[in-house]
Structure formats: C-alpha cells, structure tokens
Design brief:
mainly alpha; Growth Hormone, Chain: A; 2 strands
Length: 432
C-alpha cells in the first residue's frame, strides 16, 4: 500500500514534537531547586536532587517494563494519552501538596516520571513506521524535542532573558509575576495533560503494509547487514556488549544529569564566590541552563547521530565520552566565570544529548533492527541508574560545599568510559 488515502504523516511529526516538548520539562527541574531550599519548603540540596533522581528512575523503569509492550499491544495513542494524564496529575498533586517533601516527591518524582516513561516511547515507535525512508532524521527530531523542551519551561518560569538580551523586557516570568512554586506546578500539570493529549491524537500507526510513495523496502540481505542478527532481550543481556553499552550509558547519564540537577545551585555558589551579586548570579545560571545547556542538548541529539553515521557508533561514543570527561573536570574550575559557565554548560549539554542518538543506534547495530523497540528500553535503564547516582551525588557534595568531589570523579569516569569504549565490537552471530 503506497502513500495514498491515509493521514499526512507530517501530522504525526507535529504531534510527536508537541509531546516531547512537554516531556522535556523534567530537564527544567533546576528552575525550582533554589526556591525549594528556602521558606516555606526548606529542603536540603540533596532532597531536591532525590526528587529529580526518583523522577528519572521512574521514567526509565516504566518505559522498560510497561510502555514498550503496552504500546505494541494497544497502539501509541492510548499509551501517550495515559502518559500525559499521569504526568499532569502528578504535577497538580505536587502543587496541592504545599511544602510537603513527600508530596512533591510522589507527585513530580514517582508520578511525573512514570507519565514521561509511558509517553516517551510512543512518538518514536510511531515515527519509525511512518518514515522508514527518513528514520534517522525523524527519530533525531523527536528526541531533540525532548531536549528543547527544557528551554521553554525554564524560561517561562523565570523570564526569557539570555545574558544581556531580554526578549521580554519588564516581564520576569511566572516568578516575576508572583507565582509560587506550587502554583507553577499546578499550571504546568494542566498544560502537560492538555498538550500531550492533543499530541496523542496524532499518534497512530500507518495501515498494515503501507509504504511512502516511491520508497522501496530494503532487500532481506541489506536488512541483515544493517541490523545484524536479531537478538531477543534474554539473548541480548547475556552478551558482554550489552553490559558495556549499559555501563557507558550509565556514566554518560550520570554526568549529564548531575549538571542538570545542580547547575543552578553550583552556578550561584561559584559565581557569588567570584564576586557576582546574587541577583546577577541567578540570571547567569538561568541562562546557562535555560539557553546553553538546553539548546545544545537538543542539537547534540541530531549532530552526534550524524557524526556516528560517518565515523561509526564506537568511534562516536569514544569521542563523546572523551570530550565529556574533559569538560566535567573543567566545569568545576571555570564555573565561577560567566562565559566559562556558558561554555561548559553548552558542551556538556551537547554531549549529554548525544547519548540519546548513539545508544539506540548502537542497540540496533549490535542486536538487530527487529527487536530494537523492546531491546532499547533495557539499555535505557542505564539512564535511570545515572539519574539515581548523578543528581544525588551532586546534591550531597553541594550540601557539604565540596563541589569538586562531584564533578571531577564524574569527569574521570567519562574518561574511563572512553577507554572502555575502544573495545566495543558487535557480538558474534550464532547461527541456528
């Protein structure tokens, strides 16, 4: 069946981007951390990072154990819609919880993360069916939307000011209008449920046997070369290659998520320690995360994927890990300088985004194309582990005012990952 009498497939792209922009709000957590450490919340830096970490872990676990199989059974629309509702309800409940640490932990962390885990896989699963002729580009666009989402939600919270450039002069975001953290949680919860729900309406699979006009599926021989042998989940986890990929992803996720979680806290400490006024330091750190990290995070997902198509997945993973290791160590030493903070935030965000292009592609390369939808969530569990380790480690070191012992070990781990990555190779095919 060719490209006729079906919905315009680009509408699925629009819906996918709308969904992913909302799900990317998890990366906007740094916009709330400073407010949560003062009255009426009075949370420790570690507690703010536990909420973030629980959200990331819930995201990864629900995606691996529930979302992949469920969307395959009932289709992407139902699962995406459910994810949006769970995400929205979680944020609304957190807003209604007042200053309760447990209420925010359950609302934003457990429920918010679960909602993201349900909805995240649906656009990817649908788009690869609608765009078999543009699979790499379209998948990159979908996950880039997740990265760019943080830019929107952070700036909506604190105002669209980027260093000396203020796109909304006289308007300081929802905080500037006097909105409390709780009220913003409620507003965001409603927006997430509505917008993800709208995007979910476009999450449908093409008719069975449909192909784009003018596109011919690859021959069985070409498919075998591009994806290798198709491993089941059980077969995949029994290979050393799976555990190498998993470990490398844990390290990359730990570094990137640590910076997302604590950049506001560390940036303000470092800048005020260098003589900046607290108000100026707050603006600079907001720009570092809301513009440089978020923008480069989205671009990294697209560009690292393109680089890997030219150099191979292994070489791209090694290079990305090497650069990330250098920048994580440098981050501690140059974060007290305005442009040092911008530079390091941008490069770390760029490399972190690359994980989400390189590891799904490597999973398909090593373990086959057929089962990548069920295999990749188990590789993605590494993201949950990194989310548990990175932000909490950063928060504890921040409470102890020894930031060096957060960023330098993370940098060394990335350098070790680059060395380990040099030994990556495809698993041997076992003929039946």
């Amino acid at each position: 069946m060719s490209d006729r009498k079906v919905m315009n497939r680009w509408l699925v792209v629009v819906g996918a981007i709308l969904i992913q922009l909302c799900l990317g709000a998890i990366y906007a957590w740094s916009a709330f951390t400073k407010k949560l450490t003062i009255d009426p919340f009075n949370l420790s830096k570690t507690q703010t990072q536990i909420i973030f970490s629980v959200g990331l872990l819930s995201f990864a676990v629900v995606m691996a154990l529930v979302a992949g199989k469920w969307q395959k059974k009932v289709g992407p629309r139902t699962v995406a819609l459910t994810g949006g509702l769970v995400l929205g309800v979680g944020y609304v409940l957190a807003g209604l919880a007042g200053s309760s640490y447990l209420g925010i932990l359950v609302g934003v962390g457990v429920l918010g993360g679960a909602g993201i885990g349900l909805a995240y896989v649906c656009p990817i699963a649908a788009l690869v069916k609608w765009f078999p002729d543009k699979k790499g580009m379209i998948t990159g666009l979908a996950v880039a939307g997740f990265g760019f989402g943080a830019l929107i939600w952070i700036k909506l919270t604190g105002g669209f000011k980027f260093g000396p450039v203020d796109l909304t002069p006289g308007w300081g975001g929802l905080y500037g209008m006097g909105w409390s953290v709780n009220n913003i949680f409620i507003l965001y919860g409603i927006l997430f449920a509505v917008l993800v729900g709208i995007g979910a309406m476009f999450m449908v699979n093409p008719p069975e046997g449909w192909t784009p006009a003018g596109w011919n599926p690859p021959s069985s021989a070409e498919a075998a070369v591009s994806g290798g042998r198709d491993f089941t989940v059980g077969e995949m986890v029994a290979t050393p290659q799976y555990w190498m990929l998993f470990s490398l992803f844990v390290v990359g996720a730990t570094a990137g998520l640590m910076v997302i979680g604590v950049i506001k806290l560390f940036g303000i400490d470092a800048l005020t320690g260098s003589g900046f006024e607290p108000t100026k330091a707050n603006i600079i750190t907001g720009t570092a995360m809301g513009l440089f990290y978020a923008l480069m995070n989205g671009l990294g997902r697209i560009i690292w994927g393109m680089i890997s198509d030219k150099t191979g997945r292994k070489n791209a993973i090694v290079l990305m890990s090497l650069i990330q290791g250098i920048m994580m160590i440098a981050f501690y030493f140059i974060g007290g300088n305005e442009w040092g903070l911008y530079l390091s935030a941008g490069i770390i965000g760029f490399n972190f985004g690359g994980n989400f292009a390189l590891f799904p592609a490597a999973t398909a390369d090593y373990f086959g194309n057929k089962n990548v939808g069920t295999n990749y969530p188990w590789v993605f569990m590494a993201y949950g582990v990194g989310g548990l380790v990175g932000p909490i480690l950063g928060g504890k070191m921040g409470d102890a005012q020894v930031w060096m012992y957060a960023f330098v070990p993370a940098g060394i781990a990335c350098l070790a990952a680059a060395a380990i990555g040099m030994f990556l190779k495809a698993p041997k095919k076992i003929e039946a």
